[in-house]
Prior knowledge:
This protein has helices at residues 2-14, 17-23, 26-54, 72-93, 102-120, 134-158, 169-193, 217-233, 236-263; strands at 69-70, 132-133. The protein is an all-alpha fold.
Amino acid sequence: MAVESAARLAWTLLCPRDFWQRVSGPQEEQLLKLMSYTLVGFLILAVGFVLHCAGAPYGRYASASYGYPLPGTLAWMVQEAPAFLFPVMLVLCSEGSRLSFWPNRFLLGLFLIHYFYRSFIFPFLIRGGKSIPFFVFVSAFIFCSYNGYLQGRSLTNYAEYSSNYLTELRFILGTAAWLGGLLINMHSDYILRNLRKPGETGYKIPRGGMFEYITGANFFGEIVEWCGFALACNTLESAVFAISTLMILGSRAYSHHQWYLNKFEDYPRSRKILIPFVF
C-alpha cells in the first residue's frame, strides 16, 4: 500500500491535472497567440543577426566562441526530445477538451511521429561523431520546448475542426505534403550520411535525389513537411512553426550553398539554394 501511495503521489506531482484544468480557457488561448507572434519576431532578429553579424553557429561553421562542444548524439537527442515529450505530457495530464476528436488526434500524431524519429532514432544514425556547441544545444532545446508546448496545447485543447474535416481538401493536401516532405528529408539525410566511404574524411558534393536540383535538399523536405502540417492544421501555432522552419532552415541552406560554391570549383552552378528551379 505504501508503494502504491508513493507512486500515486509521484504521478500527481509529475502530472498535475488540476493545474492544466485551471489554466485552460480564453486567457491561455490568447497566451498561445502571443507566444506565436513573439516567436516569429525573435527569430527574425536572431536569423538576421546570425547571417549578417555572427556567422552560422553550427556544423562545419562552428567555433569555440559558441560554447563547449557537446557529444553530438546525446546533445541532439536531448535538445529535440522536448518537442515530443511536452505533447505526450499534455495528452497524459491535461485531459484536453479536443482529444476526443479524430482530426486533433491525427494531426498531433503527425507531429509526434516526426519528433520521435528526430529525438530517438535520427541521433543514432549520425556519423562522424560531430559535436554540437553548447549555445546551439541550448537554443534548440528552448525552441523545441517552446514549440512542443505551442503545438501540443493547441491541438489538445483549442483547435476545432468540422465533423468531416478528415475528408476536406485542405486536410488531404496538407497531409500529403507532410508525408512527402518527411520522405524527402529522410532520403536526403541518407544521402548525406553515405557520402563518405568507411575511413574517408573531408567533404564531398551530395549527388542524387533532390540534391540534383537544390543545395538544401534535406532542409527543403522539412520545410515542405511543416508547411503541409500548417495547411492541414489551419492554426496560428502551426503556421508560425512553418514560418520559423522556413527562416531557420532557409538561412542554413543559404550558408551551405555559399560554402559549397567557395569550396568546390566543380560545384553544379545550376543548383538552386532551396526551391528547385526558382531560388
